[in-house]
């Protein structure tokens, strides 16, 4: 009798995710929606849904929990998201290093900024993009706290935030710019005679304010509370141009960054009065997880941003 030894075949998991899959999954996870994630990835909803379903089939486990208002990550989805961030970041680092050897590779930098930094970003960004035609920049707006958490977690390359950076995040930070807050009034307003003024002196007047949830409005509300006064808001708006238009029409006065007010003053009948309060000078900071570990093209962008530390 011939005895044959039989070996038990153990099925192995075959996972074949390409970079398109991983980038799509990152977009979906961050957007909390397959629809919005597909749009960020420049993909149709049907194609995105098919790719995610194929990923789940390959894993034999759900990655997303579908709900009426978007999706949430499952335990497997959170693990995949972590590795997808690592892989995409390493790819960008590789592209940055290899770009020194040729002009065919395109680099990509993800820049996260708060709203206040937008007064200072256009000039250095335009100069950077002109000098580096093979590098693309993905610019997103978030609150400073959200940006710090995203950079610490590796969900962005560079962040620009308010001066208070949570030390627990252990991020490297560099100066970017200084914001000087000013009072903006109509030309023929009782306060327009002042050469400078404290925030407290202006609190008897009615204000044009920022939209609810704005970090700048939260700052103003806090200092009005500290002064023991009520902030009288006639209207809340998004955007310094709209706020200055309302000021010009006499709806109220406003507190704005000086650069934004100066730009509006070129075409509107408004008066700019510096605030004497020490907190009215705000600093913007660049934050990164580690400058040395950034892809080369992201390091170059940081260098373009760092010299812009003076108020324009």
Question: Your description of this structure?
Answer:
The structure is a single chain. The radius of gyration is 25 Å and the shape is elongated. The chain starts with 18 loop residues before the first helix and ends in a 7-residue tail after the last helix. The strands form three sheets. Strands 3, 4, 5, 6, 9, 10 and 11 form a seven-stranded mixed sheet that branches. Strands 1-2 form a two-stranded antiparallel ribbon. It has a two-stranded parallel ribbon with strand order 7-8. 39% of the residues lie in helices and 22% in strands. The protein has eleven helices and eleven strands. By secondary structure, it is an alpha/beta fold.
Q: What is the element layout, followed by pairings?
A:
Elements: H1 19-31, H2 34-40, H3 45-59, E1 64-67, E2 70-73, H4 75-98, E3 107-113, H5 122-131, E4 135-141, H6 144-152, E5 158-162, E6 172-186, H7 199-202, E7 207-210, H8 215-226, E8 233-237, H9 240-248, E9 254-257, H10 258-265, E10 270-274, E11 281-288, H11 296-305
Parallel strand pairs: 3-4, 3-5, 7-8
Antiparallel strand pairs: 1-2, 5-11, 6-9, 6-10, 6-11
Helix pairs in contact: 1-2, 1-4, 2-3, 5-11, 9-10
């Amino acid at each position: 009798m011939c005895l044959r030894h039989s070996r038990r075949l153990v099925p192995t998991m075959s996972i074949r995710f390409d970079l398109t899959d991983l980038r799509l999954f990152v977009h979906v996870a961050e957007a909390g929606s397959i629809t919005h994630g597909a749009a960020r990835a420049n993909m149709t909803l049907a194609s995105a849904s098919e790719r995610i379903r194929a990923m789940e089939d390959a894993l034999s486990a759900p990655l997303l929990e579908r709900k009426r208002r978007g999706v949430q990550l499952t335990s497997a989805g959170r693990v995949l998201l972590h590795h997808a961030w690592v892989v995409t970041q390493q790819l960008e680092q590789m592209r940055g290093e290899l770009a020194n050897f040729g002009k065919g590779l395109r680099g990509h930098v993800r820049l996260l900024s708060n709203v206040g930094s937008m007064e200072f970003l256009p000039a250095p960004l335009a100069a950077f993009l002109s000098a580096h035609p093979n590098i693309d920049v993905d610019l997103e707006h978030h609150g400073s706290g959200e940006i710090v958490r995203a950079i610490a977690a590796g969900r962005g390359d560079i962040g620009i935030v308010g001066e208070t950076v949570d030390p627990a995040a252990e991020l490297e930070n560099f100066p970017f710019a200084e914001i000087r807050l000013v009072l903006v009034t109509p030309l023929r307003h009782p306060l327009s005679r002042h050469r400078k003024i404290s925030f407290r002196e202006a609190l008897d007047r009615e204000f044009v304010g920022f939209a609810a949830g704005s970090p700048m409005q939260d700052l103003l509300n806090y200092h009005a509370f500290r002064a023991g006064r009520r902030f009288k808001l006639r209207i809340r708006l998004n955007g310094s141009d709209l706020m200055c238009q309302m000021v010009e029409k006499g709806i109220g006065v406003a507190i704005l960054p000086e650069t934004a007010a100066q730009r509006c003053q070129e075409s509107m009948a408004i008066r700019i009065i510096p605030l004497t309060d020490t907190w009215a000078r705000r600093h913007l900071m660049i934050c990164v997880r580690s400058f040395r570990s950034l892809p080369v093209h992201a390091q170059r962008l940081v260098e373009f941003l760092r010299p812009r530390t003076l108020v324009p």
